[in-house]
């Protein structure tokens, strides 16, 4: 597999707090990498430092052979790194369709003239509708995002990512707060992306799902990597069990 | 008589709407009450005046003033509001205080550079008034009405039909999401200043033409009246701003004609505001349909 992204010695400090402390990771094309760890381990901070929400204190992010660390989030999005948010952040006052159309312009918000082009061209709408269909959102396409349930919003996050034709999809707890039924729907969606050989990084607390969909898992604790490997290996790692999974009940 | 008053109200109300539109746009996108819009209104009136007396071209005066004041807005966003808003845990009163300071500075700057006296556009249409039946309409009012309508239609198209509108709405709702969608939120915010300050400049010139006088104090009344209008309309809501501007124009004209007002005419806006807020605390259009 070809390497898509390499993170070298990444550091993200907030004053004295070392949220990410010298982290290395590699993401290969077509691979699904899971990131797990206790609350406060630095998982979302890692996403934010990679995606340009934060400027890393140190280290490198190399995407398709190019150093991209510290560039703003909109540049990262245009480069093909798309992410969802841990807390669903829809554009609440816009319809589901417009939420997706807004993201469909990812490569087009460039320069003064481009801003004054028509937003809802037939091509953009067709593309957005195809993504809505794929993510099971067609039935709510004209509803305002503030009027739909969390299950739809989680899928909207994924739809917004997909419509940008990303090279790397970063999903931040896509199943958090969902019912079992909705979790199954989101899991099916991730598996479909996996079948299409999309490169995915997944943060998820739901371990059975992480184990099911990921090719490789990295475990974070206090901003450092404490284990990495195939799900079966990580599951039995002593350090991981102590820090995150807890001892199995021997009774 | 009544129809005549309605037309007067529409002209004044649309001018109010245009004056407050810049502040509405900026509030809707950046979430700050930019009183300095009244400074843009003042500076626009003066730049327009100098262009007009040097060239005799009113269209050039409008375009030149709107563009140059719009660029001033970009500079202010880059040097003042942008850095303030980028600070973590920023108190919302800080940009407001900065805006008040900028507005005061703009009045003094104009007084210093252009003198404290009154200046007159002395712009005259070939025809002063148009008569339709028993109704007499000043040509200046027609210009104000037409130009305001054109600018508001342009704004509606930009907001609802272009990538800019979508980028603004995304930035207004959540800058993180907007950036994740590829929007350079700094540019989007700067462009909102071009449009917002440009609109204020146009309103300043129109006021100058309507009353045929401009002074460095021109921005004082709009600085507080625009607040009443944007709050009345439902903060950050362009449609609400138009309705609120028209409502206040109507109330001012009708009350000052049919009653002996116990308060200054400029206080009517606040009386209307208080009455509406008592009934609907979120303003006429609440938080919905905002930018």
Keywords:
heterodimer, A: 251 residues, alpha/beta, Rossmann fold, 2 domains, 6-stranded mixed β-sheet, 4-stranded antiparallel β-sheet, 10 helices, globular, B: 291 residues, mainly alpha, two-stranded antiparallel sheet, 73% helix
What's the CATH H-level homologous superfamily of the largest domain in chain A? P-loop containing nucleotide triphosphate hydrolases
The total domain count of chain B is 1
Overall strand count of chain A? 10
User: The CATH topology of the largest domain in chain A is what?
Assistant: Rossmann fold
State the end-to-end distance of chain B.
37 Å
- The structure class of chain A reads alpha/beta
**Beta-strand residue percentage of chain A:** 15-25%
Sum up the overall morphology of chain B in one term: globular
Low-confidence stretches of chain A: none
Fraction of residues in helix of chain B: over 70%
Q: Which residues of chain B form runs of ≥5 with pLDDT under 50?
A: none
Write the layout of secondary structure elements.
The complex is a heterodimer of chains A (251) and B (291).
Chain A: E1 3-14, E2 17-28, E3 32-36, H1 43-51, E4 58-63, E5 66-67, H2 73-79, E6 81-83, H3 96-104, H4 111-115, H5 122-134, H6 150-162, E7 168-172, H7 180-195, E8 199-203, H8 207-213, E9 216-221, E10 224-229, H9 231-235, H10 238-245
Helix pairs in contact in A: 3-5, 3-6, 5-6
Chain B: H1 2-30, H2 37-55, H3 58-86, H4 93-114, E1 129-132, E2 135-138, H5 139-161, H6 163-173, H7 175-180, H8 185-211, H9 220-233, H10 238-258, H11 268-279
Antiparallel strand pairs in B: 1-2
Helix pairs in contact in B: 1-5, 1-8, 1-9, 1-10, 2-3, 2-4, 2-8, 2-9, 3-8, 5-6, 5-8, 6-8, 9-10, 9-11
Explain what you see:
The complex is a heterodimer of chains A (251) and B (291). Chain A is α/β, with parallel strands linked by helices. Chain A folds into two domains: 1-80 and 166-185 and 194-251, 3-Layer(aba) Sandwich (Rossmann fold); 94-165, no CATH class. In chain A, 37% of the residues lie in helices and 25% in strands. Chain A is built from ten helices and ten strands. The N and C termini of chain A lie far apart (43 Å). Chain B has a two-stranded antiparallel sheet with strand order 1-2. Chain B is mainly α and 291 residues long. In chain B, 73% of the residues lie in helices and 3% in strands. Chain B has helices at 2-30, 37-55, 58-86, 93-114, 139-161, 163-173, 175-180, 185-211, 220-233, 238-258, 268-279, and strands at 129-132, 135-138. In chain B, a hairpin with a 2-residue loop joins β1 and β2 (135-138).
């Amino acid at each position: 597999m070809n390497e898509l992204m390499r993170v070298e010695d990444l550091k993200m400090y907030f004053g004295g707090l070392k949220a990410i402390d010298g982290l290395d990771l590699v993401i290969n094309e077509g691979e699904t990498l899971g990131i797990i760890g206790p609350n406060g381990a630095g998982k979302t901070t890692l996403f934010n430092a990679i995606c340009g929400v934060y400027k890393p204190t140190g280290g490198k992010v190399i995407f398709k052979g190019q150093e991209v660390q510290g560039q703003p989030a909109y540049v990262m999005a245009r480069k093909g790194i798309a992410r969802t948010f841990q807390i669903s952040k829809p554009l609440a006052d816009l319809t589901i369709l417009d939420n997706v159309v807004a993201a469909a312009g990812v490569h087009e918000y460039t320069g003064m003239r481009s801003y004054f082009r028509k937003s809802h061209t037939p091509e953009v709408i067709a593309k957005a509708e195809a993504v809505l269909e794929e993510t099971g959102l067609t039935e709510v396409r004209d509803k305002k995002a503030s009027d739909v349930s969390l299950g739809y919003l989680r899928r909207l996050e994924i739809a917004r990512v997909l419509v940008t034709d990303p090279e790397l999809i970063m999903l931040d707890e896509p199943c958090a707060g969902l019912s079992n039924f909705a979790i199954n729907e989101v899991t099916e969606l991730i598996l479909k992306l996996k079948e299409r050989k999309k490169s995915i990084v997944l943060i998820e607390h739901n371990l059975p799902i992480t184990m099911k969909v990921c090719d490789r898992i990295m475990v974070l604790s206090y901003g450092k990597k404490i284990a990495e490997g195939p799900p079966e290996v990580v599951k039995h790692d002593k350090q991981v069990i102590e820090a995150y999974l807890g001892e199995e009940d021997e009774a | 008589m009544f129809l005549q008053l309605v037309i007067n109200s529409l002209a004044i109300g649309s001018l109010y709407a245009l004056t407050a539109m810049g502040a509405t746009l900026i509030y809707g996108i950046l979430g700050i009450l930019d009183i300095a819009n009244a400074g843009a209104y003042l500076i626009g009136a003066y730049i327009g005046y100098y262009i007009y007396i040097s060239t005799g071209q009113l269209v050039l005066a409008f375009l030149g003033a709107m563009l140059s004041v719009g660029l001033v807005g970009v500079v202010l966003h880059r040097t003042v509001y942008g850095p303030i808003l980028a600070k973590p845990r920023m108190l919302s009163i800080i940009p407001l205080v900065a805006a008040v300071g900028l507005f005061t500075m703009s009045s003094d700057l104009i007084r210093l550079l252009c003198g404290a006296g009154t200046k007159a556009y002395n712009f005259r249409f070939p025809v002063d008034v148009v008569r339709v039946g028993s109704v007499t309409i000043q040509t200046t009012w027609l210009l104000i009405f037409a130009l305001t309508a054109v600018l508001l239609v342009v704004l509606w198209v930009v907001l609802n039909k272009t990538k800019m509108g979508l980028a603004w709405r995304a930035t207004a709702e959540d800058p993180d999401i907007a950036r994740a969608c590829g929007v350079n939120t700094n540019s989007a915010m700067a462009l909102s200043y071009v449009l917002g300050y440009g609109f204020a400049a146009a309103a300043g010139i129109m006021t100058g033409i309507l009353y045929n006088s401009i002074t460095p104090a021109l921005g004082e009344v709009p600085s507080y009246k625009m607040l009443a209008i944007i709050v009345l309309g439902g903060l950050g809501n362009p449609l609400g701003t138009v309705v609120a501007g028209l409502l206040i124009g109507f109330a001012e004209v009708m009350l000052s004609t049919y009653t002996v007002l116990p308060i200054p005419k400029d206080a009517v806006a606040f009386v209307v505001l208080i009455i509406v807020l008592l009934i609907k605390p979120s303003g006429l259009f609440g938080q919905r349909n905002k930018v």
